[in-house]
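Case study 2.
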Amino acid sequence: MDSPKTIIRRLLPAAAALALFFVVSAAYFAPQFRGEVLPQHDVVQYEGMSRDITEMRKATGEDPQWTGGMFGGMPAYLINVAYPAQIVKNTVGRVVKVIDTPAAFLFFAMTAMWLMLLIFGVNPWVGIVAALAYGLSTYFLLIIGAGHITKMWALVYAPLMMGGAWMTLRGNMWAGGALTALTASLEIGANHPQITYYFLVAMAAFWISEGIAALRGKHLKEFSKRTAVLAAAGILAVGSNFSPLWYTAAHSKETMRGGSELASTAEASQNGLALDYATAWSYGRTETFNLLIPDFMGRESGTTFSPDGEVAAVLNDYGLRGAAQQLPAYWGTQPYTGGPTYLGAAAVFLAALGIALARGRNKWWIVAVSVLMLLLAWGRNLMWFTELAFDLLPGYNKFRTVSMALVVVQWAVPLLGALALMRLWRDEIPRERLLRALAWAAGVTGGLCLLLAVAGGSLFDFGRAESASMMTEQFRHLFEANNMQDYLKRGMDAEMGIASANAMAAERASMMQADAWRSLLMILLAAGGVALFALRRINKYVLTALLGAVMLLDLVPVDLRFLSHENFISARRRQITATAADKAILADKEPGFRVMNLTVSPFQDATTSYFHRSVGGYHGAKLARYQDLIDRYLSYRNDAVLDMLNTRYLIVPGADGQPEAVRRPTAFGAAWFVDKIVAADSPQLEIDLLEKTDLKTTAVTTPGDKAFAEEWQAGGQADTALVRSIALTEYRPNYLKYEYTTPEEAVAVFSEIFYDHGWKAYVDGEAMPSFRADYILRAMKLPAGAHTVEWKFRAPGWTAAEAVTLISSLVILLGAAAAIASWIRQKRKENIPDE
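Prediction:
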């Protein structure tokens, strides 16, 4: 039996680590404990897009699985659907709720990384240093500020998933399998497939490395067993999330990620996102230096030049006071960026030391996957490689924002540093070799910083050419607007543009050089600590404490540039509040109509959906046909298409600048009868006909409905003198009820989005067929008389999908319980004294 002192000694590192992680997280996000919140863009958008879903749950206890609030209506699979059978996520996954976000993000990211390092065999004291580097890397603070919640949780669980794979292939196979299944289940359940995908690539690199080692050591049979256990764990993890994965996969074919039916044959064969769209956010090759030097590219897109700087001085001389505060300091190639993916100069130095000192089997797969992710992050800046990845990597063409691949590098850099420190901790490296490795790591990282600090201003153009062109054009417009033709004749626009561009380049260079000196200082502090340890001036405990302090000193001040206490606001201010225009529209109690809000970017904003059914919204995987409608008609406010979508109100800027509601009297209503049907021969002709057809009297159908259209037409057109009526009498996101009267059989078009994977139509309780009309809407042939039409939505195959999810989840939980029980029994045996 261990003595109390022994127990305390064993628990002390864990207690110290968790206490430190909590203090750092709580201090960084202290305002949240005063009830303040972050105005996170994506969180606000999510509140809008999921509003009718959450309201229906509160009112009825039923999960609608569909939203009517965005883009005319769409499945809720990628928004908010309740999956009760995800019991791993709903039980073990609730552990992260013990601390509120955003502090929970940092705390659990550092904790998960620390636990992974323990599995990798890293000492708990050493693990604290690497965990701080992982949790405080700048990218985390950027996505927390933006409200990328699912991405953040995926990055919290990813290290533990990797730890499970490590244990399965190198340690206790069964315990590793149980851990992998559990953590992979949580990782997949976080619902950010792109992050999960990148870490699965990292796991594949580790598996290949282990396979090569097994082949060389002639242990292929053992490796095969471990591979089978790892594969089984993966299958169970997928199974425990089968419902959301199944419906997401089935639904993705209908979304813009599945490709448009209007695409050319070559484009359609890609069966994924267009390359230009997928690579819009590509990391510049030169921009990669900001992994080491945060302001290498002039910080984030919103950073402008100082009012007291060189740019301001030049523009002030030209009479343009304040203009410098309108110009971007960022000079990278991304359309917009919230800030650099700064990993910490000290962390990069330790990673370089890890490359020099870690054993080959431990490091080369990490180095290889880091290089791969770096190349993938370059996207359009290395297009031949990106095209190769799109062709060869299964599923890779479904993802956009390729720069996100750097999250694996963000994880790999602290890991390499930890592997280096462990060799020091165990005193495995001779002094001479350690000093050589130290000189190499410090020389490469510190030498690069020194070079950029001293001569960086002459090594890059800092966007000088682009800035000169931009400023010349602006000066030209200014001169033309003020009829200053003499200035134009003398070429003053070009002269002033070049002068301004030179000042912009100089100020950007100054920003970069200042941070290069800063990064050099952090490297010298970390390298100095390692040198003191190598010379036996400090012990390993002091070394890890020193390096932990350097991580905090290095990363926290940079993080605060992008997310600080000043970003917090009162909870009341973050609430979406109804404007006078919203209140005027809400006074209209007739169900079913829609709203188009022109005071925001209508197809990049979901706040309108908080109060109304919107023709716009905010989502990266909207229905492909609806995106076609946006591109062809809605972006240009085509009245016929707005009418068929029953767009009764526009919200426009009023005379006083405040939103104002304008009623559109031409909206068709929730449903209407048509007199004839026109069948298109192709999707392209189908969408073309929308602007050539009187949609109030004629329905445009798809090629597949051509026979029906001809048959119905042959029966004779409806008598327009007959009195017909149809009205929406009850509305919920997943249920619509109409009352209609028609003296003869007729075709009705419903101003609802056609989606035949779950929507079913009933007339007086009897199921009836329906078809697609007007490219995106629903239509039905209705019998004569007075009847009731009901539309009901239910995810198809729900019971079977949930059964698979539940069974897999139970197996994972039982496996985890068995692993814990086995560990407890083993510990008890170890503590029984020999007789």
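Residues 470 and 497 are 8 Å apart (CA to CA).
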